[in-house]
């Protein structure tokens, strides 16, 4: 897929989602943009702040990106799953950019559960269906077991993006022969 205008956007508190985003960007030949929260998320206080915001489904304050998502054909957005919900900085990013996406795809990293609900929330906040979705456990990501899962995700993305492009092409008209 390299050569296309693809952006991989993510938030990562501990580095797990960052690792997945980096692998994915390499497979896609994509540019990368990290969502940055305005408040510190490190340590136990950052964990509690993150948990409370996720439970309340409240968007975090984030630093505005310098990237214009409307200039990308596809934006792939990644989130960790917190309390069966998307991370609050990702929630804020989706809300801020929902009217600018052309196509989206989603991935999440999770421990035991909540991945389906998080992906549902991402679709709802983006206001459009995803071309593809992927869930990886933190164990898969940290042990290097994510390569095959990400390759399958990229293959689905390629097929669905090609199908989208075909549906956007103007239909040719056949000239009548006389």
Automatic annotation (TrEMBL):
Gene3D superfamilies assigned to the protein according to its UniProt record, in alphabetical order: 3.40.50.360
Keyword Flavoprotein listed: yes
Sorted UniProt keywords: Flavoprotein, FMN, Plasmid
GO molecular function per UniProt: electron transfer activity; FMN binding
Superkingdom of source: Bacteria
InterPro entries: Flavodoxin/NO_synth, Flavodoxin_CS, Flavoprotein-like_sf
Cofactors named for this entry: FMN
Domain Flavodoxin-like: 6-158
Annotated protein name in UniProt: Flavodoxin-like domain-containing protein
